[in-house]
Amino acid sequence: MTTEEKIFNAARVVFQKKGFSGARMQEIADEAGINKAMLHYCFKSKELLFKAIFMNAFGQLAPQINEIFNSQDTVFEKIKKFTHSYISFVMLNPYLPQFIIQEMNNNPDFVMSFMNFENRPNPSILIAQIEKEIAEGIIQPIPPKQLLLNVFSMTVFPFAAQMMMKGMLQISDIEFNIMMEERKTLIAAQIINAIKT
Amino acid sequence: MTTEEKIFNAARVVFQKKGFSGARMQEIADEAGINKAMLHYCFKSKELLFKAIFMNAFGQLAPQINEIFNSQDTVFEKIKKFTHSYISFVMLNPYLPQFIIQEMNNNPDFVMSFMNFENRPNPSILIAQIEKEIAEGIIQPIPPKQLLLNVFSMTVFPFAAQMMMKGMLQISDIEFNIMMEERKTLIAAQIINAIKT
DNA sequence: GTCTATAGCCAGATAGAC
DNA sequence: GTCTATCTGGCTATAGAC
Prior knowledge:
The structure is a homodimer. By secondary structure, chain A is mostly helical. Chain A is 78% helix and 0% strand. The structure holds a DNA duplex.
């Protein structure tokens, strides 16, 4: 593993846990097992390092989502595939959703300044398809954007609000993982059950 | 309005928007229209000011939730009441959910050190009730904690991930508010439709 | 490339006048 | 109680040896 990779991995851990303003360059250096000066040698500044981490994180998620949204499947199939593959992926990167949500909220201008809008998740095809399937009587009437919001909510929220939900529902890390494993199929079943004709 | 109140309101705005580490005492002072020294005169330190804000925020939410969770209503009635009243309340404080989630994730130890555990949302009665109604055949079988997670997800997520969802679904602030208004009844209908026998 | 040492700045906190 | 001015510590960033 190159030094740059060590820094990158360390920075991902620290930024995703503490956020941009909470992260310390010293902590990233310690996590990487190198000196603080190397961070600046490799990535020039905290902002540029953060930018690299954020774009990488976002870049991993967006294409997966678009691939599923824009495939030839039915809406129900898409919901099943999305929830399953999103949960599988995020279980390996549990801090990712909260990280992205947090930085977009805390500093929208900064994030927007380097967001890649070409690759952003684009649900317009799926929205049209939902409208079509409603017209065909396959799906019960519902505003398409509300349906998408439901799918994202059920899938992403448990990871974004992990600490809070673990505390409120009194569940351990292990139980949490079991529940998320179960949600890979449970969510889609619930959503489809709610809107099927 | 007393100076203390002016500070408190200003601090709430800044902390909820930027988080603990992103917030600046100077910015809070400016927002309050007073001097930075007054902050320390009134609240001693940034941490204590934050603590006051966080506990107030959490203290507003928890009792409402418990009241609904522990009433004499049926599960379906509770879901309807919770989603409706939670959304109504949070529409007046749109930064609140993300604020609480973020700080619990970024600095669990700090937050836990002053969290009021007596008043925390406690779903144990509701969980027992769900099990009972499943046994009675009123609700389709589902792990109670998964059902609760679904209710919270559908209700809280749109506010927590506001920026991201506005960007992805291409909705304006006004459209967002219309959608949230609609969700006051839509969510409960969806959830109940998915689990009713 | 990798380190040590340090510059320079900024934010939280305080002293002290009024 | 409210201000101005200032201290102090910590953090980003850089200079410079090796």
